């Protein structure tokens, strides 16, 4: 991955942050967000509040990983593992809507400042994820962009869905997910079904990520 690719991922992440915060500010102002915090999101078992808490805590985890790498350390994304991650989200999920929006904004701003620090060291470093071993620090740029685009839609709030994902994100993620899908198929079956190809790119991606099951296609694993 070269510097131009990382810069593209960072620009995508900054834009995704701005869209998310602007959307939340609007829903807070019109009174619809406070009523939605405790309602189910599109993520199984999570309310809107859980998704917002996850977005903020994920940003904080990236900031921590980057600052560790700047110091020459290789850190765990979530100290205490997946149980501690889940507990932190649960603890924050039921907060008032205004607190959630302030937290999402603050954590995104801190992360964007950390991105500048990572750029100064050339994104040289590694980190450990909760479901993997050591990974390159530079992977975090795209991972955060993905996190915000996808979970913004997972909130299930009026005004943002797969049709609103950025075209640049859909193009890159769709190529990645299509390659992963092809790698899991039997020898000689590498192309997506014709029914999937007929879908708009964003909805083809939504299917591959388990966010939609269009007519004629099997449900995909959520992820």
The largest sheet is: 2 strands, antiparallel
Q: Class of the largest domain, according to the CATH hierarchy?
A: Mainly Alpha
Series of H and E elements: HHHHHEEHHHH
CATH architecture of the largest domain: Up-down Bundle
Number of helical runs?
A: 9
Query: What is the residue-mean pLDDT, rounded to a whole number?
Result: 95
Widest sheet: strand order? 1-2
Alpha carbon gyration radius: 18 Å
Q: Can you count the beta strands? A: 2
Strand proportion, as a percent range, falls in under 5%
The helix content, as a percent range, equals 55-70%
Determine the CATH topology of the largest domain. Answer: Four Helix Bundle (Hemerythrin (Met), subunit A)
Terminal Cα span: 24 Å
Q: What is the domain tally?
A: 2
Computed structural class: mainly alpha
Unreliable stretches covering 5 or more consecutive residues: none
The backbone outline, from C-alpha atoms, is: globular
Q: Name the assembly state.
A: single chain
CATH level-four homologous superfamily name of the largest domain: dinb family like domain
